[in-house]
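Lab notes, practical 5.
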Amino acid sequence: AAVLAASASHRVAFLALALPAALCLMVLARARAEFPRPSELEPASTPVNPQLAATLGPYLVGVALVAGGFVDFPLLAYHFMRTAAVTSAGVPLLYALAMAADAVAALVLGRWFDRRGPGLLSVGTAFCAWFAPLAVFGGLPGAVLGTLLWGAGLGLHESVLRAAVAQLAPSHRRAASFGLFHAVYGLAWFAGSVLLGALYDRSPAFLAAFAFGTQLAGAAWFFRTLARTSSTAPPAFPDGQWARSGVPWRYNAGGRIRGRDA
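Output from the prediction step:
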C-alpha cells in the first residue's frame, strides 16, 4: 500500500512484492534444512483423546459455515467505493490495516488457544462476525471497524481454525485431516463467495444478513461441538517450553524438546 501510494504504479507495487516472497522462500529453505523430518518434533506415543477425535467431522461443518459466510475483501472494497465510503486510494490502506489486524489477531488468539483450547473459536467467530453489518452500513467509520474485524477473523482462520485440527486428528491421520480441512474450507468459501455476490446484486443488506447469520451459526456450532471437550484437550506441548540441545529434536519426559544426545 505504501509503495502504491508513493509510486502511483501498480507495476512497481507488484514488483515490490518480490522482496517478501524471496524472504519467505529463504525462511522455508532454512526450516527445511534444520528440520528435515518434522515428525520427529512429536513423540510417536502422543496420546489421542477419543472424544476430540470423534469431533473432527462435526467440526468441519462449523468450518464450512464460517468460510461460506466470510466475504472476500474485493467485494467489500467494491462496496466501499460504490458507496463512496472510501476512495480508490484508500482501499489499499484499508487492506494493509486488515493485514495488520490479521497478524496481531493470529498471535493473540494463538496464545489464547494454547491456554484455553479450541473452545475460543465460538467467542472469536461471534465477535468477528460484526464485520459484515459494520462494513455494509457503517460508512467510513464502519468501513474501518469492519476491516479491522475482517482482518481479525482472517487471523482466526489462519491460526486457531487450522490449529484445532491438530488436536482433533490422530498423528497418523493428521496430513489427511488437514487436506480435508482445506478442501472443505476452500469449497465452502468458493460457494459462499458466489452466493454472496448474487445476494449483493439484489441488495447489500442481503449480503450483510447472510454473512452475519452464517458466522453466528458457525460460532454456535463450534460452541456445541467443542466447548464441552476443550477442557479435556491435551496441550500440544505439555509445559509450553522449547529447548534445543542438539539435532534432531526430541521430547524428554517433561515434554521439552531435546537433542538425541542431550
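Observations recorded by the TA: The longest helix spans residues 139-168. The longest strand covers residues 249-251.
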